[in-house]
Amino acid sequence: MNPELSVVVPVFNERDNIAPLVDELVAALRGRLPFEIVYVDDHSTDDTLAVLQALKPRVPELRVLRHATQSGQSTAVRTGVKAARAPWIATLDGDGQNDPADIPKLLAARDAAGPEVKLFAGWRVDRKDSGSKRWASRWANRIRARMLRDNTPDTGCGIKLFEREVFLDLPYFDHMHRYLPALVQRAGWKTVSVPVSHRPRTAGVSKYNNLGRALVGIRDLRGVAWLIARSRRTAVEEL
C-alpha cells in the first residue's frame, strides 16, 4: 500500500535519540493511516547510521538515506522530501524535542482546513530551551515577522505538515526550512500555525549557537524578502 504520509527526519550525530523517536512515531501513526518514516543522515560522525540500520528489521515503515558529505538541515529535509512516496510530508527534528504525538493534531487541522492551505506549522507555545535560546528566537521572530509579514509566530519549530508538490516547487537554498511559511505564502498558498508541545533535549548536543544562527539569519532574511518583492503570480487557463 502506498503511504499517505511521509515523515522526514533529518539527523546529524543523534544516535541516542533515534530509537526512542522512531518508537514514538510508530505509536502515534501505526493504525491511523499508511505511512513511512524517512530518516536522512547528514553524514554523521558517530554511529547514527548503524543505529538506524539496526532498527529496520523491526520497523518496516523505516527508510534510511545518507548524505555522502555533510550538507545541512535544509538539504537533508529536501533530500527526504524528494525521496518520499506520499503526497503529504510531516517533518520533525531528530533531537527528540518535537513530540510525534502532535502529528495527528496537524493532520486533523489539515482535514478541517480548505484546499488553499498547504502548510501547517507547529507553534511551540511552551518552549523547553535555555533562556538565552528563547530570547534569541523571540527577537528573531519579531524581526522576521516585521520584514516578511508571514503572520507566523514560530517558524523555527521543526514539526510541520505540508504538501510535497508545493514544497518541491519552492526556491531551494540553505536554511530555507526556517522560512517555509513565507515561501509557501509567496507561492500563493495559505499557512496555518498549530500549537504543539515542546520537550527538553535529553541526549546529544545542539548543532546551533545563537550568534551563528543570527549572522546567517540576517543574510537569509534579506534574500527571502527580495524573493517576495520580486514574486509575480497569475492565474493560468488552458485554451
Automatic annotation (TrEMBL):
The keyword Lipoprotein does not apply. One of its GO terms (biological process) is lipopolysaccharide biosynthetic process. Gene3D superfamilies: Spore Coat Polysaccharide Biosynthesis Protein SpsA, Chain A (3.90.550.10). This is Dolichol-phosphate mannosyltransferase. Transmembrane segments: none annotated. Pfam families: Glycos_transf_2 (PF00535). SUPFAM superfamilies: Nucleotide-diphospho-sugar transferases. Keywords: Cell membrane, Glycosyltransferase, Lipopolysaccharide biosynthesis, Membrane, Transferase, Transmembrane, Transmembrane helix. GO terms for molecular function: undecaprenyl-phosphate 4-deoxy-4-formamido-L-arabinose transferase activity. It comes from the Bacteria. The keyword Cell membrane applies. Residues 6-167 form the Glycosyltransferase 2-like domain. One of its GO terms (cellular component) is plasma membrane. PANTHER family: UNDECAPRENYL-PHOSPHATE 4-DEOXY-4-FORMAMIDO-L-ARABINOSE TRANSFERASE, UNDECAPRENYL-PHOSPHATE 4-DEOXY-4-FORMAMIDO-L-ARABINOSE TRANSFERASE-RELATED.
